[in-house]
Design goal:
heterodimer; A: alpha/beta; 8-stranded mixed sheet; B: Non-ribosomal Peptide Synthetase Peptidyl Carrier Protein, Chain A; 0% strand; globular
């Protein structure tokens, strides 16, 4: 079963270089440098390039040449998004413009103090949207799945301006369950990626972009357990300095004592999530950042 | 609450909530490996403990709870101090 093995694309040194470049040379120059950095990854990151090629060639059915070119563009956009993330988290959000579809859903969750779960994915730049959510008057808890990412967060924490964002790292001893439960009981918002899971997580097989893939049920089970609404949210880059934020109408996940009925309900909500995820991915195919074999098997 | 009473109550909710069999509930059983209690089940455990025994579980406590006996001891110690 393909699952994420705990390593993210981009390392701590890379992030530090990006932060220094941004600080001393500015965003346009950092983008210029990025063209070469992306080319380096294109040439030498065979493992991730292979899965990205599969994504473009077999999932989106691109031609061979378009798929190869898209691998480079994917690295380039990924780098841009990291730079934007550092810039926005560091307080330069005035340089960016945004439009929101469904922002009122998040306001409603905050105003009515229902709490809730914002299920995003490893596409676009959701952490940036999280920073923008400061105008929503509630604390946002972001669940971090990977150790590597946590180190990166530590680097980023020096530049983060909005302190209403609380990061909850997933721990092998399950101790992350306590702050998650507390946040839910305090009716706060939790943001979690719905497209990645670690080995031994509870998953459900769903048809996604025409191929079978496993998705974690954890975020939706939490919503059912605590009776809080769920919204699917994505923040996608549309131009050098413009982002488009999407949040779906919140839904409630029913809780059942019968495990079969519960699984059926979880599958149904996961399918809804995948439908929205697919819609977004078809609009922004280059902004896919799961650099590991995501689908169970390819129909080559 | 007596220790025996606490153990019975713990066993009762493990059977009810996690569909475990009574004969699986031996003190040396590992929560994760033997009883297959996963991270989502821990969510339920946290809520159930608070509801039934009236204390809040702390994150660092999780590192010390490996077996069912550890879990009984943890509840007994905390339930008595509350």
């Amino acid at each position: 079963m393909p699952s994420w093995k705990g390593q993210s694309r981009g390392n701590v040194l890379g992030y530090k270089i990006f932060i220094l470049t941004l600080k001393y040379l500015g965003l346009p120059f950092a983008y210029f440098l990025l063209a070469f950095v992306a080319f380096y990854f294109f040439l030498f990151s065979h493992k991730s390039s292979k899965v990205t090629y599969h994504y473009f060639r077999h999932i989106h059915k691109y031609s061979f040449l378009k798929s190869v070119w898209s691998i480079y563009l994917n690295y380039f956009v990924f780098g841009q998004i990291i730079l934007d993330k550092v810039a926005i988290l560091g307080g330069l959000k005035g340089k960016f413009t945004y439009n929101f579809d469904g922002e009122h859903h998040l306001h409603k969750m905050a105003d009515e103090k229902t709490g809730g779960i914002i299920v995003n994915a490893h596409v676009g730049n959701f952490e940036t949207a999280g920073q923008l959510l400061e105008r929503i008057n509630t604390k946002i808890n972001v669940i971090l799945l990977d150790a590597e990412h946590q180190k990166i967060k530590k680097v980023l924490s020096d530049v983060i301006v909005n302190k209403d964002i609380n990061f909850i790292p997933v721990q092998p001893d399950f101790s992350h369950i306590i702050p998650i439960s507390e946040a839910m009981m305090n009716k706060e918002l939790i943001a979690v990626a719905g497209d990645r899971f670690i080995t031994d997580s509870k998953v459900i097989e769903v048809d996604f972009m025409g191929h079978k893939a496993d998705f974690p049920t954890g975020p939706f089970y939490l919503a059912a357990r605590f009776g809080v609404p769920v919204t699917f949210a994505f923040a996608m880059k549309e131009s050098r300095t413009h982002y488009h934020f999407y949040a779906s109408e919140p839904i409630y996940v029913k809780r059942y004592t019968n495990p079969e009925e519960q699984n059926k309900e979880l599958k149904s909500v996961t399918e809804n999530y995948c439908k929205e995820f697919e819609r977004i991915l078809k609009m922004y195919p280059l902004q896919w950042f799961n650099y590991y074999p995501f689908w169970k098997k390819s129909k080559e | 609450m007596e220790n025996k009473e606490i153990i019975e109550k713990v066993n009762e909710f493990l059977i009810d909530e996690f569909e475990l069999e009574e004969d699986q509930l031996v003190p040396h059983a590992s929560l994760k490996e033997t009883l297959e209690i996963d991270s989502l089940d821990y969510v339920d455990l946290v809520v159930i403990i608070e509801k039934n025994f009236g204390f809040k579980v702390k994150g660092e406590d999780f590192a010390t709870i490996k077996t069912l006996q550890d879990f009984y001891n943890y509840i007994i110690n905390h339930a008595q101090t509350n």
